[in-house]
Amino acid sequence: MKRFFLERSWRLAKKFGERFRFDFGRRRLSFWRIPFLTAVVFLAGFGPLPPLKSVVVLSDGKSVSFETRERFVGEALRSAGITFGEDDVVLPPAGSVLVPGEVVTVRRTSESLVVRRELVSNKTIVIPNKALKEGKEVELRAGHPGLVRKTVRRIISNNTVKEEVLAEDTLLSPVDRKVFRGTRGTESRPRILTLLATAYTPGRESCGKYADGKTAVMSRAGYGIVAVDPKVIPLGTRLYVEGYGFALAQDVGGRIRGRRIDLLIPDLKTARRFGARKVKVYVLD
Fold it and tell me: At what angle do helices 33-44 and 2-19 cross, to 10 degrees?
């Protein structure tokens, strides 16, 4: 109240001083004008005071009620010790005239840029396999998750966090995991054959002058291709050969008759070392 009285008196005194050419900056006051100025300042203090206005402020999750004689919303908040920054939202605006019973809301808002790294999950690709017991898994490729770097704009408004992704850079691409999962139950077991196995290469040393890198069904010759007797194992049958791995019957041979199987091994030395041996062959189809 004292501060308001002095400020009001000074404003009125300055107004009259400017009107009668008083120079407050250089303090050029005539002796006869001093009593007049003193009377103005004295009488100004006894003018009518602005009415008290009740205000409710909602800020920082709290509700504050008080009374003030300030004219504007911003002045009322500052007089009550409630601060607000440029990014904060004041409703009604700080420059608006304060109305009795006004409810003022102060929403705290802050904005920042955040750079962070995040993992990108990889998938697991499951390939059913009849040669494996149901529930058993054989991992073909371990795989790994990916890694990205994100630039995020984080906006905190009234204790609510909102994020906006501005940029995203891939640091490491995810690689999916691959597994064979067994589907063989107790009631459905694959057919097991004991065959005499030999090895061959796709070159001239095994296939002669007609070697062209193709199989009997015109597919590309490579590891995992085996030659069979179609009367025993139909072409296109999926197999699992003990000591060799999963294979596909896609080739034939002049000497492959009856219970024999020829395993394609690209390396000549390895194929020669394989020799001839009896192996168990699981017919998966």
Answer: 140
- For residue 202, the cross-strand partners are none
What are the DSSP calls for 79-139, one per residue? HTT----SSSEEES-TTSBP-TTEEEEEE-EEEEEEEEEEEEPPPEEEEEEEEEETT-EEE
Peptide linkage before 92 cis (omega within 30 of 0): yes
Identity of residue 100: P
Output helix, strand, coil percentages for the chain, rounded to the nearest 5. Answer: 20, 45, 35
- Our CA angle for 264, 139, 130, nearest 5°, is 65
pLDDT higher at 275 or 211: 275
- Which segment of 143-147, 174-178, 206-210 scores lowest on mean pLDDT? 206-210
- What is the pTM assigned to this prediction? 0.37
CATH of domain 53-107: 3.10.20
Is there a common fold for 53-107 and 112-183? no
Would you say residue 74 has pLDDT above 90? Answer: no
For residues 42 and 32, give the distance between their C-alpha atoms in angstroms, rounded to a whole number. Answer: 17
Q: Please compute, for residue 113, the number of CA atoms within 13 A of its CA located in the half-sphere on the CB side.
A: 5
CATH number assigned to the domain covering 112-183: 2.20.230.10
Domain ranges of the chain: 2-44, 53-107, 112-183, 190-283
Q: Which two tokens stand for residue 156?
A: 């905190």
CB atoms within 10 A of CB 41: 17
Q: Is pLDDT at 25 greater than 50 in this prediction? A: no
**The CATH classification of domain 190-283, taken from the options 2.60.40.2250, 2.40.40.10, 2.170.120.40, 3.30.930.10:** 2.40.40.10
User: What tens digit of pLDDT does each residue of 7-16 get?
Assistant: 555 565 555 5
